[in-house]
Amino acid sequence: MYRSKQQIKRIYAIAFIVGGLFLVCSLMLLRHATRQIEQVNIIHLYETTTQLRILLQRQLAQNFQTLHGLATTVSYMSQQKTLPLHKEIRNNSNFTHIGLIAPSGLGDMADAQGIVARNVDFSEEDSFRAALAGGAALSPPRNNPYVQGQVIYCTVPVPSDEHVSHVLIGLTRADVFLNILSTPLFNAKGFAGLIDAQGHFILSSDRGPASGVESIFDLGHVNEADHQEALNKLTQGRRHYFLYHDEKKQYLAAFDPIQNNNWLLFCAVPLDALDLVSPLLLYGGGVVTILALICFLFLAWRVYRLTEWRDRQLQKLAFVDPVTGGINSHRLQLEATELLQKNPDTVFAIWLADIKNFKFYNKMLGVKAGDKELRRIARILEKNCRGPLARCCHITGDTFAGIMPFTGHENLIATFAHTASEIERGAYEPSNVFPLHLHAGIYTTDAIEEEELPFMEMINRASIALLVAKTEEESAFRFYTEDICEHALSLCN
Question: Which domains, ranges and CATH numbers included, belong to the chain?
């Protein structure tokens, strides 16, 4: 009965967790789907803005190419001789008037019929100054001084040797660019305009939300963070998007830089014009996904529990000694290597120990008693080899190994002598015929070596010292030195 109640409590706990995950995942899924739709809308708006920008830049490039070609020509001709060229270009371009302006800012303007105005002063015009400085420029819309309407000045420098001798100005009707900006966007629900690096409108259609508005930030409310980020992107001349809302609708807006005057193309569209995914499809898909998610969570939980159990078994097989229950030689190698790498200023003692007469003990009293004795010896070694920088393990048979901070020869010998005394006196089945003795070989990392040794090489050197220690009848401990190494070689011979 007790187990049944526990099982029921466990089931309720699992159901509660799955229910909580169901709720959280549902909200996350819906939020993710909404963000995906938002990203699709942004990409769609960016694509539309890019297409409109390409049309606009193509028109501007055509105007500037025409003026640059004419500027190259007139640099070798007198102004009077270039008048027929002005007429020809006027008849085959969007320019209503063209003029060659001297560095003083004065010049004559001509249309298809000839000169219509003499000594027109452009000295206060920013686009003229920019061209005089060597760059092509545009002006904001200006009132056409010759006919009704507005024009935009396109200015390019006329090179002469290494300086600018004149500035060529072409007047283009603002309607040419307005026709591009008035292209119907998103079923005529969106609108576009030209803005400067501060977000002020330079050119926009008289129809639509931008009519009579000075800045894009006056179209509606923009939160402070989006406002500041949009200003930063405008100043950097990088494309960006943001949301704003007026009294009736919420809009998605984007701007993209063009190649002239640090101007940007601005487009905005109401969010209700961007319903690219049906809400019914969204929520229906959400419900189906959530139901599938519940089944997945349950199966994932079951797989997780089985995997966790198998991982524990594999970890136990990989890192736990089956006889003593402590760490095995593989884990000792990993942890000792890490200790040596992370504590380069600490001198360590790496030791390898052997229990003399254990084979006789194990053979006479049986494997079961032998395993018990090995577990007892392992506990004694772990007790005397403790600390955050110390490790020890059962290697195999009657062999143990470990690493510990080196505190001096005398202290280490005293530690091993105390350990040997405990091992000899506390055997499960004491015997005077085959008493248990501890032999240990020790290598210290302060030994002078030609190159840095890996941990297993240090164990090998400790084994050389152990070989010499095993020549003693009683417990003995030897440190690795060159003399010990020569002694061990003599024993092998």
Answer: 67-176 (3.30.450.20), 329-492 (3.30.70.270)
